[in-house]
Amino acid sequence: MKHEHLGFDYQLMQPEELSAEDLALVEQAKEATFTSYSPYSHFRVGAALRMENGEVFCGSNQENASFTTGLCAERTAIFYATAKCPDMPVTVIAIAARGQDGDFTQEPISPCGACRQVLAEIEHRADKPMRLLLYSQSGIIVMNSVGNLLPLQFNGDSL
Ligand code: THU
Questions:
Q1: pLDDT at res. 131
Q2: In a domain, 4, yes or no
Q3: For ligand 1, is residue 118 a contact (CB within 6 Å)?
Q4: Fewer CB near the last or first residue (10 Å), C or N of the chain?
Q5: Which ligand 1 atom is the nearest neighbour of the CA of 40?
Q6: pTM of the complete model beyond 0.70
């Protein structure tokens, strides 16, 4: 038997430690929470992503009375972006959320499993790392690759 280990590093930063570009993207993700349609969960999520050409696309979670048909903020934003710019790598995605009290979360929220699969596909398609910024009131988690969130991922190479 062989034991293997999978792990990754990330940073926890304060807003003033981010580059001006990253900070601006985080602000856009926070702003996007105000376009959330979440009458059922009252959990408002915003995502903002920057493409390699500098363009920024934002999205928010869009819920539905038929619960399972709603869509997370990350997938709303990234499908919008890749539909507009099919071959443009996404360099960084920022995510923020406000809870039922209306305030931004105390701790960062991380993309759900379905969003991880979609983000990983788009990173793999571009063959370039997509950085991740997870905002919260207590700090911002910064990761160098969304692939870190999905070790042993299933992707096009698996077929
Ligand atoms: N949600 C997101 O938009 N992104 C996440 O990363 C986690 C969850 C949404 C889905 C649903 O509208 C609400 O948050 C509560 O789960």
A1: 98
A2: no
A3: no
A4: N
A5: 12
A6: yes
Q: Which domain holds residue 98?
A: 11-150
Q: Over the chain, what is the mean pLDDT?
A: 97
Residue 23, in any domain of the structure: yes
**What mean pLDDT is predicted for residues 135-153?**
97
Average confidence (pLDDT) over 84-92: 97
Mutate which of 33, 35, 62, 112 for ligand 1? The one with the most ligand atoms within 8 Å of its CB, which is 112
Can you list the alpha helix ranges (DSSP code H) found in 8-145? Answer: 20-32, 73-84, 113-126
User: How many separate domains does the chain show?
Assistant: 1
**Residue 19 in domain:** yes
Choice among 16, 27, 31, 74 that is catalytic:
74
CATH code of the domain in which 88 resides: 3.40.140.10
Q: Which residue shows structure tokens 């997509």?
A: 130
47 lines ligand 1 (CB under 6 A): no
The percent of the chain in helix, strand and coil, each rounded to the nearest 5, is 35, 25, 40
Quote the pLDDT of residue 155. Answer: 94
For residue 76, being part of any structural domain is answered with yes
> Cα(37)–Cα(28) distance, rounded to whole angstroms?
17
